[in-house]
Amino acid sequence: MKQIDLTTHIEAFQYDELPAEAQALIDFAKQQVHNSYADYSHFHVGAAVRLANGEIIGGSNQENAAYPSGLCAERTALFYAQAKHPDIAVTELAIAAWSNGEYTEQPVSPCGSCRQVMLEIEHRMKTPMTVYLYGTKAVYVIRSAQELVPFSFVKESLFV
Ligand code: THU
To answer: How is domain 11-152 classified at the architecture level of CATH?
Structure first.
C-alpha cells in the first residue's frame, strides 16, 4: 500500500493587506449579498468575477421553494460571465457571505459543484483563476481553482 497525500495551498490575509484591485473585487462581492434571494437558508452569498478584459460581473445565491432548483452565487456569476463572454477567461473570483445580519467572520468555502464549475472554466480558458474567500477575520486567497479540487474529474478524464 502506498499513501497519496494531496496538498492545498491557501494564503490567509487581512483585508487591508490585499492589493487595491483585490479589495475592489471583494467589495463588489460583498455588495452582491444584498441581491441574494435566500428565503429558506437565510444565508446570503455574493460573488464577483473579474474577466481578462477587466469587466466585473456579480452574482448572488437564488433559492427556490423546490430547493434543488436554486443556485449558488458563484455559479450564478460564472455562468452569466460565460454566457456574456464565452471566449474570455475568468481571472479572479471573490466570494462573501452574510448571515445573522453580518458578514461571516470565517471565509466562505465554495461547495463542490461550484468548485467543479470553476475548474472547468479554468481548464477551458487555460488561465488560472485566483479565488478570494472573504471573512471579516481573514481573507483566504487560492491561486488556482485546481487547488480547490485536487483530485479532479475533468474533460480529459472522459478519454482515458
Ligand atoms: N451557497 C452559495 O451561494 N455559495 C456557497 O459557496 C455556499 C452555499 C448558498 C446555497 C444556498 O442558497 C445557501 O447558500 C445555503 O446553502
So the answer is: 3-Layer(aba) Sandwich (3.40)
